[in-house]
Write a structure and sequence with these properties.
heterodimer; A: mainly alpha; B: 4-stranded antiparallel sheet; 9 helices; 39% helix; globular
Chain lengths: 221, 261
């Protein structure tokens, strides 16, 4: 392994940085989508009303149990053919990953909401707070503290999962890495750099979640 | 005077268990009614029904003459939404387990509902909250989180939070049962102050001395029914019903026993 050679790869660094940017944007878009949709699904599941809970249940189980790679391919190749909607490679990947991660967020959020003591709902109710205000000011802030660690893990999992978008040619980090590896004939070195880039992207997120946890812990002391 | 709280033939079941069995009750404005009885007698459920935290199968509950809860298996008019909205601030409730919002400071606990439900400004809500916290002796704890307070302080904060909505009725559900003995007094003192100000109160408690001092009427409940209702100097001295007498005797024995040790 003494012949690790990074020399020629340096020429491709700008390309790799562009790929990393795209990975970041892909991650941000799908996480944002997943958070919003996940919360809606969690509330629908938690509502106890069949009309809402059932579709949410079917959605969550469907997206949790089918491979995200297949979901990306459905959206990229399937949608234009069946519905005439062409999202493009980035769009299809972002939407597919967002829909997928929403199912995981939904289960995390549902557990978090259910983990808030029932008596908190009752206390809010006798004060006259309506459902929306009870969620917004009483339940969700408490649930948020509980769901921070698993949410952080899921976000990191998703960032690395964006590599699946390489399958439909989205020029994200891994895809660029593969191209560079092909041109330099240095796959091990190139992918090592790609791995470091993923670390650089994800580690600050891990730190941010830890910082949030600490802040909330200090809040309640 | 017309009653502020009226229960008519209220029946509540959990599955096959009848928790409340055709309960009739009327509480006049300014009256302090204390409910006593063995655990499982339905005292807390009675309060929770008045607060509309529970459904009932039969009967009606009226606040200030207006229907707020109707038996789910009865026919007849249902409470209308506008009435419920108008009355939602009328009933304050304090729980055994305080149920403060742990992520909010004492001050935020008290101001949340006035701001969101009554729609008053933050500044107004704050001065109202500070006034109430001063009244319950917690003005110096306004920025503390509940976890930093003793049980007695938490319970007084919960009372201030309920009072901030200017309720016409206060429900107290065994509010001193979770407290260390030396902290009970400060909460009872706060409640006594409320009673002296003419607050209508429905109180479930095991503190018989307090009941004797503060109650206009004492209700003895057993097996989901109201067995006896009388002023404290009658019910504690010469209860009419054998069941009331048996309960009070058991209680006195136990209290006597614990005092000797």
């Amino acid at each position: 392994m003494s012949d690790f050679q990074f020399g020629r790869i340096v020429e491709y660094l700008p390309d790799l940085i562009n790929g990393a940017w795209l990975t970041l944007w892909l991650s941000l878009t799908s996480v944002a989508m997943g958070l919003v949709l996940g919360l809606i699904l969690a509330l629908a599941r938690y509502s106890g009303r069949k009309l809402f809970a059932w579709p949410a249940y079917v959605y969550i189980e469907f997206f949790r149990t089918t491979p995200p790679l297949v979901q990306i391919i459905w959206l990229y190749y399937g949608l234009p053919g069946i519905f005439g909607v062409d999202l493009g490679a980035f769009g299809a990947a972002a939407v597919a990953l967002g829909l997928n991660i929403a199912a995981f967020f939904a289960e995390i959020f549902r557990a978090g909401i259910a983990g808030v003591d029932r008596t908190q709902w009752q206390a809010a109710r006798v004060l006259g707070l309506d459902w929306v205000d009870t969620l917004r000011f009483v339940i969700l802030p408490q649930a948020a503290r509980k769901v921070l660690p698993p949410t952080g893990t899921t976000v990191i999992y998703l960032i690395k999962g964006t590599a699946l978008a390489s399958a439909i040619g989205t020029p994200e980090l891994l895809r660029v890495g593969q191209l560079v590896a092909n041109e330099t004939f240095r796959p091990v070195e190139t992918l090592t750099i790609v791995a470091i880039a993923y670390f650089v992207l994800t580690y600050p997120i891990a730190l941010a979640f830890h910082a949030l946890e600490r802040r909330f812990a200090a809040d309640r002391a | 005077m017309d009653s502020l709280i009226v229960l008519e033939q209220v029946t509540k079941r959990y599955g096959a268990d009848t928790v409340l069995d055709r309960v009739d009750l009327a509480v006049a404005p300014g009256q302090v009614v204390v409910v006593i009885g063995p655990s499982g007698s339905g005292k807390s459920t009675l309060l929770r029904c008045v607060a509309r935290l529970e459904e009932i199968q039969h009967g009606r509950i009226l606040i200030d003459g207006k229907l707020v809860l109707r038996g789910s298996q009865d026919a007849g008019p249902i409470p209308d939404a506008a009435t419920l909205r108008a009355l939602r601030n009328d009933i304050g409730m304090v729980f055994q387990s305080f149920n403060l919002f742990p992520h909010l400071t004492v001050l935020e606990n008290v101001t949340l509902a006035p701001r969101r439900v009554m729609g008053i400004s933050s500044a107004e809500a704050e001065s109202l909250a500070i006034e109430l916290l001063t009244r319950v002796g917690l003005e110096d704890k306004r920025d503390a989180y509940p976890s930093r307070l003793s049980g007695g302080q938490q319970q007084r904060a919960a009372i201030a939070r309920a009072l901030a909505m200017h309720p016409r009725v206060m429900l107290f559900d065994e509010v001193t049962s979770a407290l260390d003995p030396e902290l009970v007094g400060e909460v009872l003192k706060t409640m006594r102050g409320l009673a002296e100000r003419g607050m209508t109160m429905l109180v479930v408690t095991h503190e018989m001395g307090f009941a004797r001092d503060i109650a206009d009427d004492v209700i003895f409940m057993d097996c989901g029914a109201i067995v006896e209702r009388a002023p404290p100097d009658r019910i504690f001295v010469e209860p009419v019903e054998p069941r009331t007498r048996a309960f009070l005797e058991r209680l006195l024995e136990r209290e006597g026993g614990s005092r000797r040790t």
